[in-house]
Amino acid sequence: MKQMNTKSPFTHIDSDEALAQNGAVVANPWRDLRQFTDARIGLGRAGISLPTAELLAFQLSHAQARDAVNLPLDIRRLTTLLSTTSVLENLDPPLVVTSQAIDRLTYLQRPDLGRKLSEHGRNQLIDYVNRNNIPNKPYDLAIVVVDGLSSLAVQNNAQPFINELITQLNATDTPLTLAPITLVQQGRVAIGDDIGQLLNSQIVIVLIGERPGLSSPDSLGLYMTWAPKTGLTDAYRNCISNIRPAGLPYQEAAKRTIYLIQQAKKLKLTGVNLKDRTQDDVIEHQNNTKNFLIA
Amino acid sequence: MSQSYRYMLGNQTYHFKNLAQLMAKATPQRSGDRLAGVIAHSAEERAVAQMTLADVPLKNFLNEALIPYEKDEITRLILDEHDIKAFAYISHLTVGDFRNWLLSDYATPQVLASVRMGITPEMAAAVSKIMRNQDLILVAKKCHVSSAFRNTIGLPGHLSTRLQPNHPTDDVNGIAASMLDGLLYGNGDAVIGINPATDNVAQAIKLMKLMDDVIQKYQIPTQSCVLTHVTNTIECIEAGAPVDLVFQSIGGTEATNSSFGFSLNTLAEAQDAALSLQRGTIGSNVMYFETGQGSALSANAHHGLDQQTCESRAYAVARKFNPLLVNTVVGFIGPEYLFDGKEITRAGLEDHFCGKLLGIPMGCDVCYTNHAEADQNDMDNLLTLLGVAGCSFVMGIPGSDDIMLNYQTTSFHDALYVRRVLGSRPAPEFEQWLTKMNIMQDVSDTILSNRLPSAFAKPLRAIQGGH
To answer: How many domains does one find in chain B?
Structure first.
């Protein structure tokens, strides 16, 4: 976005003439605070309304986000990427399934169908389990990657995050047994519970594209369920949001995920009764609420 | 006790198996009711259902619980706390008569306030289904509901805003930057409320301290809230954190609220804890609730009811705990519940009307997501309509773009637009502060100062000098 005011005018007053020359737009001298946030602060104003340039910039962002909702996940590219990730080399290649939502329009209007595996997908998983005698050797963890509302989030962030998570998990005292990764098209969060149950996994982690924002079209969300089974509600899940380099970085997100996994194993549950306390120590030992307004 | 309802139209008899089905079929079209499979099969069936519903006596709502009394603590709350004396005034009316009565000159603000506790959420929902948008606006405007903590929300002629300075990593300077932007645009009198990106107790405490520091340093007559789970807030209070308002998302069925991880007892415990802090200076409304059509269905906890009736029942939960603010987050849930701008607009007006009629301080998050068929023009329309209807508060966010929750809501500029075209004003205590701080040159005409207020010039200079 174009910088509308490059002066350093913390004490300046817009004279009437200056305003008239500037198309009557009053600039906001605190626009420099954008160094701290991507939020659309300091936009300035025409009277009390948005200046033309800002209005049009917003409309462009909205147009791009609308387009992103409809971009399909490139399954082949993601499968190749995961199959060639070295920390995953002992796993079978990803299982690729679809939900019961047959296309994007159906997906948007029928979340119930997005939560259910297609008949074909279900059979694929059952076949896999039977072939490998899974019922007798349950997995510790199943990772399910779902396109959700932003395939871009999955395309950009799923593989690097999984790579980081498995690397960190392998460095813990008690490495986990992993189910093959499942890739889901036109899926919602709850489909992970179905898959986790079919794969006979103690914990399921769903990585899903969150609804695209104007400034963040590629946020990846993580949902974790202990003892997944069909029909569980959100109260049984823990969530870590906005996983992407410009949001919650992979390393930190993986650290929090491992904390949740360890707590889930200890307490034998996930959801509202499992509080994420990864930052308690940090915050107790740091007076980090200081900001420029309180300096 | 459940009865069926019939309507003869020419040779055809329409049959509705119970009150719940009749209510659902009478609801103006929306995608969530289609998803739930409770929608009218045709436009004619809907119109007939509305005519049938108009003939239903209000008393029936006391005899036929839409969700059984034994199965749902919200049904118990609604029926156990129903005020028969207040109801006496309208007890002889049908739903259709009730609409006429609400619109009539007899129904003054005073009279509406006095019958409030005799109206159940289902009665409010039923009458709303046979009201046009202008009816919803006209009656809501007559329902005066005010609440107070450090300022007064909901006085006639006033429109407050929640300043929502969310940041995707909860960065303290990022949040402070959005707070400053909002304050300098005259926003933030309803509450400064953060949706934390990281939802845990430690993070909530950190954000509470951040907002409390700013409110104290600049002596802002407003309150803060971190929108974390109610059980987290209880822990924050136990840990000695500066909690002004307790937040919780609520729904209109017990099963919805169980899926959110709380019960009415949890809310009572949280309210007691917040009251014990005595942080309100002019009032003791300490709860902030959010609702939205579709949440019950989303939790598979709707018991076959339409989503607007479920929503209205959530207001019984809110009413029980004397909230400062109740916010229907109307377009957040997505197109599977409210498909486009038209459906979002209708829902926003219904929610505001039902909330005000039942006596809760209703605001609206006028919003949409990027996967809904809606845009800024739809939001302008709903915002204007709600402003006319006397909505207590709306959201204020930098440039309409919530960079944490990934949706679009009303901006700081939007709030000033409504204030200017409708002559509405912020909360009186906050208005004085805006004048004193030289943020606004003229509050009554919504004119901002062209000069940066001196109290904020200093920290900004420090930033500039620092890099």
So the answer is: 2
Domain definitions of chain A by residue range: 16-68, 73-276
**How many Å is the Cα radius of gyration of chain A?**
23
Do both B90 and B176 map to the same domain?
no
A 225-244 residues inside an 8 A Cβ radius of B: 231, 233-235, 239, 241-242
- Residue of A263, A268, A206, A199 whose CA lies nearest to A234: A206
Judged by a CB distance cut-off of 8 A, whether residue A222 touches chain B is no
Q: Which residues of chain A have pLDDT under 70?
A: 1-22, 135, 279-287
pLDDT in tens, B352-391: 999 999 999 999 999 999 999 999 999 999 999 999 999 9
Taking CB atoms and an 8 Å limit, are A110 and B402 in contact across chains? no
Torsions phi, psi for B181 (to 5 deg): -55, -45
Tell me the pairing of strands B152-153 and B147-148: antiparallel
Q: In A, which residues are within 8 Å of B261 by CB distance? A: 235, 271-272
Which one, of A208, A210, A203, lies nearest residue A224 by Cα?
A203
* pTM as predicted: 0.87
Residue in B136, B131, B129, B135 with CA at minimum distance from that of residue B49: B129
The count of other CB atoms within 10 Å of the CB of residue B63 is 12
Pick from B187, B183, B150, B429: nearest CA to A293? B183
Q: How many angstroms separate the CA atoms of B298 and B32, rounded?
A: 9
CB within 8 Å: A30 and B456: yes
Pairing label, strands B401-402, B393-396: unpaired
Low-confidence ranges of chain B (pLDDT < 70): 1, 466-467
Q: Are A114 and A101 in contact (CB under 8 A)?
A: yes
Domain end: B118, B142, B166, which one?
A: B142
A30: contact with B, CB 8 A cutoff: yes
Pairing type for strands B287-291 and B246-249 reads: parallel
Which homologous superfamily is A73-276 in? Ethanolamine ammonia-lyase light chain (EutC) (3.40.50.11240)
Which structural domain, as residue segments, surrounds residue B61? 13-142
Rg of chain B on CA atoms, in Å: 22
pLDDT tens figures, A83-103? 999 999 999 999 999 999 999
Query: What percent of chain B is modeled with pLDDT above 70?
Result: 99
**Max CA separation in chain A (angstroms):** 81
Residues B203 and B329 in one domain: yes
If you write DSSP's letter for every residue of B132-189 in order, what string do you get? -HHHHHHHHHH----EESSSEE--TTB-EEEE----TT--HHHHHHHHHHHHHTT--S
CATH of the domain at B363: 3.20.20.70
pLDDT digits (tens, 9 = 90+) for A2-38: 444 444 444 444 555 666 566 789 999 999 999 999 9
Taking every pair of C-alpha atoms in chain B, what is the biggest distance, in angstroms? 83
Question: Is residue A238 within 8 Å of B200, Cβ to Cβ?
Answer: no
